[in-house]
Amino acid sequence: MISDTKPTQVSDEESTTFYAAGDTGLMTEMRDVIGPYLEPDAAALPIGDHFTMGPMQAAIAVDWLDVDHAFPQHYDTFPPIEQDPEDFASEVAATGSDAEVHALEADEPFELNP
What we know:
It contains 3 helices and 4 strands, in the order βαβαβαβ. The protein is of the alpha/beta class and about 110 residues long.
């Protein structure tokens, strides 16, 4: 049974929380635990689709996590996981999420501010 209770922690508006999903698939813990309890501002999600989530599942995760910034990861390093990050951005938009998708180059910095 899923509880409708909210976390008792006090949100810290001056902090920024980043969630790195690693090599995972879509899981309800993103919706039921990680999103409401950790309240991430940004998330890095795999979109490779062969061993991990694909663009559509990762977009659902973005929506469930309710993040402001989404970073695709674990794609295009070898043929089975070739993906176009624009497909991920389109899928994120299709969920109704207003998260910004940032497909960074390997050495491209990004400053995440609260």
